[in-house]
Amino acid sequence: MTVGNTGNWWRGGVIYQIYPRSFQDTTGDGIGDLPGITRRLTYVAELGVDAIWLSPFFKSPMADMGYDVSDYLDVDPMFGTLDDFRALVGEAHRLGLKVIIDQVLSHTSDQHPWFSESRSSKDNARADWYVWADAKPDGTAPNNWMSIFGGPGWEWDGTRKQYYMHNFLTSQPDLNFHCKAVQDALLETVRFWLDLGVDGFRLDTVNYYFCDDKLRDNPPMLGDDDAAGLDAPDVNPYGFQKHIYDKTRPENIGFLKRFRALLDEYDDRASVGEVGDGARSLKTVADYTAGNDKLHMCYTFDFLGPDFSPGHIRKCVENYFATVSDGWVCWAFSNHDVDRHVSRFAKTEAEREPVARLAISVLATLKGSICLYQGEELGLPQAELAFEDLRDPYGIRFWPSYKGRDGCRTPMPWSNVPPNAGFSTAEKPWLPVPEAHLALSVFEQAPLPDTVYNHYRATLAFRGEHDALFDGEIAFLDSDNDDVLMFTRSKGNETLLFVFNFAAIPQSVPLHMAVGHVDTLDFPGMTAVLNGAGVELGGFDGFCARI
């Protein structure tokens, strides 16, 4: 547990994301499950994190791997039972781990009973629980809104003889948050999990809850405008629009206040929102975390792209704290929706391991909470899968120009034994285990001190030993070298200086500041040394000193 992290555990905490399908299978069906997670929680705790985040395990037809919920109050049988979940929470708490679960509130599955009733007529009790609209006189969709998963954001329903809105798959109809009964019902599902002992919620697509009640067309994205960024890959026409009417509506603030008020009825609970909003992301985060009555923290897609450079990191962090005055951020380099970061950041295969080490050293010393994605502590690269192995509807839709998200969702390699690396006894798991991952398994890395895995453990332990890294201030220092990142973290009487070399070649970095006495610290896995008035860094190296 992070130093000083006894009250607001989420503030400066380290969160470990678990993708249940791919963590540990205990039934032999090739799909990970809740008992498998419980079995491996000691491993997670020994890594040195504060909390786990579980991607969806709710009952679902799995059209979008669980992000299409058909019952918010139950566990899908492929993952286990509610009793299995209770056992997981109990074991996590015994080990000192908080439990965060993914809450998918913006939409349901079309198999949810709410939608079945809503689509049955225009005058039933839940007729207005989803976003329904009449066709234009020529039969076309009500407006020009697009789906992130490709194509129009509207689907015709022959029973109601109306269109319904969907931001994602056609089987994921959007709930109508303008209807208070919808908000009430969703908040009751949140209360259910709070009563089961969960410590927090990761809110999927938190800025998508409301759409414009007048259903106005989105304007086009003009040449001088900032593009949609990582909201969608550039092969997707979703990026052709400014999404000012189909998401990030002002009414969202009111619902977030209701959500926070519910959490505040319970002790020590937290919320983290996922904000995918292109150029507006920082302003949206500021709005959603301002004051003490909405979200506890948010994360954006700033570090989830290909840019891993001192200039980019400094710009993102400084812009965040300049824009978000009293909110909090959660930084991450990888998650279940993007290519694994060693494959995005490393220019060659030989660079993957040193880049993996550098990345966690940088991430763990920034101001904010951090989120790790299962397997990144092993330095796993992105898996290359054949089309016939894909399960992600997004990748199947845009193949081959976009390969989807399956490459970062392959099973966790616990052992070096093919074909399934200790993940499952099934003849064929839901996704294959890449052969390249076998040599990077927990079995291979855990016993040896000089591995990416043990570098993660040492770096997280270092973070936990310094109060300045919990919630201390950050100040960037100018460098004449574009490959060098320098900043300080300060709290109370402690100021720590960090210098990082993002290049593969050694760097000699003069310290252009009056630092007074420099007390070099043993920074895990880093070999840089002071040399007179400067620092000598190896390739992808780092330096830390108390000044």
Q: Give the mean pLDDT.
A: 94
The order of strands across the largest sheet is 11-10-9-5-2-1-13-12
User: Would you identify the regions where 5 or more consecutive residues have pLDDT less than 50?
Assistant: 1-6
**Main pleated-sheet profile:** 8 strands, parallel
Number of strands: 21
Shape: globular
Determine the number of helices (DSSP H or I, runs of at least 4 residues).
15
What is the radius of gyration? 23 Å
What class do helices, strands and sheet pairing give?
Answer: alpha/beta
Residue fraction in strands: 15-25%
Approximate helicity band: 10-25%
Amino-to-carboxy terminus distance: 25 Å
Strand and helix layout:
Layout: E1 14-18, H1 34-39, H2 41-47, E2 51-54, E3 58-59, E4 71-75, H3 82-94, E5 98-103, H4 113-118, E6 132-133, E7 154-157, E8 162-165, H5 180-195, E9 200-203, H6 252-263, E10 270-274, H7 281-289, E11 297-299, H8 310-323, E12 330-331, H9 341-345, H10 352-363, E13 369-373, H11 393-398, H12 435-438, H13 442-445, H14 452-464, H15 468-471, E14 473-477, E15 484-491, E16 494-501, E17 507-510, E18 519-520, E19 529-531, E20 534-537, E21 542-546
Parallel strand pairs: 1-2, 1-13, 2-5, 5-9, 9-10, 10-11, 12-13
Antiparallel strand pairs: 3-4, 6-8, 7-8, 14-15, 15-16, 16-21, 17-20, 18-21, 19-20
Helix pairs in contact: 5-6, 10-14
